[in-house]
Fold each of these.
Amino acid sequence: MEPGSGSGCWFLYYAYGSNLLRERLLLRNPSAALCAPARLQDFKLEFGHHQGRTSSVWHGGTATIAQSPGDEVWGIVWKMNTCNLSSLDKQEGVEDGIYVPIEVNVHTQAGKVLTCRSYQMKDYVSGPPSPQYKKVICMGAKQNGLPTDYQEKLEAIETNNYAGPFDNPMQNWKLFILARGELVAARGPLAPLGGGGVGAEGEGKALGHSCAGRSRFPLGRRDRVWGGRGSKKSILFPDRKLFLAR
C-alpha cells in the first residue's frame, strides 16, 4: 500500500516547505484547499541537495524532514483532489527520484490526528537554503498562522546568501515575485476555496472541486481564486491504486 491513501476523489497533503504558501501551491495544484495547521512529532526540518546537486530552481538546499525523537515540525494540511496528485508528484520530483511520498500522522491545533501524504528527500547532502527559498517558507508560515516560536526558528535559519540571477525565474514569474516577498503585499488575500476558510478551531472546509472539464477554481484577474460549490461528497484520502510504487 502507498502513503496517504483511501478511497474516493480527495486526499490530504502535509506541506512543510515552500508549499506552505498558498500562492506557491496553487500554481500547479488549483484544487488545494486549506484544512488545518498541524504538528508532525518526532521529526525535524532539514535542508539539502539531492545527491549533492544544488537545485537549479532555488539555488540552494531544499526542505525535507528527518526522524528525530523529541523534535517537531509545523506545517499545513491541504485537502486536494486526486486530479492534482500527478502535478504534485511532478512538482516534488517523484519521477526523478528526488523525493518519495510518505504517510505521516499529524496533530492539528484542535487535537485531531490526520493521516496525510507528504514527501521526503532521498539521498541528500545537507546544505543551507537560498534566501529566496527561505523567504517563501517564512511567508507561508506567517500567512497560515503557524506558532510564533516556530516562525522565529524559521527566520533564524542560515542561508547560503545566494544573490545571483535566476536563469529561468523559478519556472514561473509568479514564483520569482514570491521569492522577493512582493506578491502578498501587492495584492489582496485569496478568496476562500469552495466557500471554505479557517474556522475557530483553525480548520477549514473544502467543498466541491471537479477535475472533469474546466476547473471550478480558475485563476482570474489579479490571480484571485474563486471557489464554486460542488458535490459535498468527500473523504480524506484518494484511492490507494493511484499510489502504485514506481
Note: The radius of gyration is 17 Å.
Amino acid sequence: MKNFGKISKAWLAELGIYTSEHLKQYGSVHIYRLVRARHPKKASLNLL
C-alpha cells in the first residue's frame, strides 16, 4: 500500500488489512479506531 510507513503497515497487518481494497471495505475511520484501541499512545490521526 502506498503512503504508509513501516509501523503503520505493521499495525494494519495485525488487523488483517493488506490492501487498499480492505481499507475501502472497512472504512478508514473504523480501522483507525481499531488500531487506536490496540496502540492508544502511539496511533495518531495521521493514520487517517
Note: Residues 16 and 27 are 14 Å apart (CA to CA).
